[in-house]
Amino acid sequence: MKRVAFLSMDDLTDFVADDDLLVAPLAEAGWNVLMSPWRDRSIDWSGFDAVLVRSPWDYQQAPAEFLATLDRIEALGTPLANSAAHARWNFDKRYLFELEAKGVEIVPSLLIDEPLTTAKLIKAWNTHRAVGLVVKPTVGATASDTFRLTHPSDLPSGLLETFAAKPCIAQPFMSFVVREGEFSAHYFGGQFSHAILKSAAVGDYRVQEEWGGVPRPIEIEPALLAAANRAFVALPAGTLFARIDLVRTEARSFALMEAEIIEPALYLRTDPGSPARFVAAFLDWMARSSREASDVHDC
User: Are 78 and 136 within one domain?
Assistant: First the structure.
């Protein structure tokens, strides 16, 4: 059987992952899955026929080392999805401004270079005419180091210290995140697969399961799918998998919260047909990768 590495982390105990749902359909297609921590320097990545970046949800703790791992995999000629170039593009939330320039509606965002100060927060408050602010790092995952402010004069503990030496993004608090939830549309091989609604726990605003959020499958409404498609086609081309996170606005449009193409949770358990769709997209991607490698060799 061919071997595919699922790039992961040393310990997933505190996280919710369902990539195991891909093991059986991949085995039926002739592929053996090995969970492979990205920090393990002893792994010979050339021994795999492909590497899929799946759950390295601690990469933000050592970003340079993580990117170097992706570079090593590609340097060995092992097909990698999504690519190191995709990761570099998606690594810093400044990509939101690039998508906005392409006509994608995003949650209004203001980049704040370090150090964060009260004066900068007041500017963000006035810019957004906000009833609340969310401040998050430009490089981060799973809502870590994310703060909600009800007023710039009432600062959460640790906020200024967290962003004393790293940049952040300030966004208005989107009330529909609590009133309704955050929508996620998943794409495999460039095609829409399935959608979910993630609801925050009572008293919280973070929709990630690590913070008590609850995902549930939905039938995606046309306006939401159109907004997700606009964001997806503005991404760098060639992704095997992508997740588009959106929130309803007060104007009832849908604004992009995040576009995830490094290591998105794919919520496969919410849609029984999604593992088979993923595997089909993977096999097609592998066939294209093989043809491209053959073309390069022939040249």
Answer: no
